[in-house]
Amino acid sequence: MNTLFVYNKKAGNKFKSTLIDEIKANLPSKFQSEFIEIQKFDTFKTNDFECLVAVGGDGTVNTVAKRACNEKKVLAIIPQGSGDGLARFLGLTKNIAREVKTILNGHTIQVDTADVSGRFFVNIAGIGFEAEVADAFNKAGIRGVLGYARTIAKLFYHKKEEYVSLTLSNTKLKLPFFSLSIANGNQWGNNFKIASKAEIQDGLLEIAIMRKPKWYQLINLILFLKNKQKDSPHITYYQADKIEVEYTGKTWHVDGEPVSLKGKKTVHIHPKSLTIIVPHG
Fold first, then answer.
1. What is the rounded distance in angstroms from the CA atom of residue 60 to the CA atom of residue 125?
2. pLDDT, tens digit (0-9, with 9 covering 90-100), for 166-187
3. Rounded to whole angstroms, how far apart are CA atoms 175 and 274?
4. Which of 33, 103, 113, 242 is the one with CA 20 to 30 A from 19?
5. CATH topology for 3-112?
6. C-alpha span between 154 and 158 (Å, rounded)
7. CATH level 3 topology of 119-271
8. Taking the domains of the chain in order of start, what are their residue ranges?
9. Nearest Cα to 93, choosing from 278, 281, 224?
10. What is the CA radius of gyration of the chain?
């Protein structure tokens, strides 16, 4: 396949200057490929390419996946971000040689995608605490796990619960929440699994409603998110293929990237609308 690698120098904690050379060194000599920075991607013609490779974090994956979905091309991922939620869910790693081998020898699967009133996402969208963390993290320009930890600690104390009205497949609910995830994949990133039972090929979205824990309950919540506990009293789950959200706030995130969305929002899922290369087994 003629393959376009789209890389983001701002992804992760620090972009390795040798990254592109390392990818090229693991490709066969006659492999047809081209490399561009993500800033040039919007205006770049992709007609001649069958496969688009996102080299970066969740935001890079979102941008490249949207184009792959719209143009019916194959998506591949070489994760290089801070969280890499979708990539980890699919069993991908930061090992360059391994993931180039996946591109060359892996198999393709059809996965669901979704949108929030037209805003494409493939992993998770959300409101409340998680959206405010994404917004603050983006504005601070700090990358890596340590940057996330500092942002979370700073915002946690001041963030209060709010109310959201949801219509889930014709069932109406009004619920208090601290953070709300609409999950196609199973995790925010770094193997923190907010929706561990999520399936990316089932035509359904998981809705995770989190209440605010006390400080002394945070360890148990973290253990739950790391799948070291079976359940959590702080999170309630629902499933739906269409969701209407009425929420007074306007700060959302889609695949970890902050966006401003006002008024009532509708979330749709698009079953098996994207082809992705994943490792065998």
1. 15
2. 999 889 999 999 999 999 999 9
3. 32
4. 113
5. Rossmann fold (3.40.50)
6. 8
7. Tumour Suppressor Smad4 (2.60.200)
8. 3-112, 119-271
9. 278
10. 19
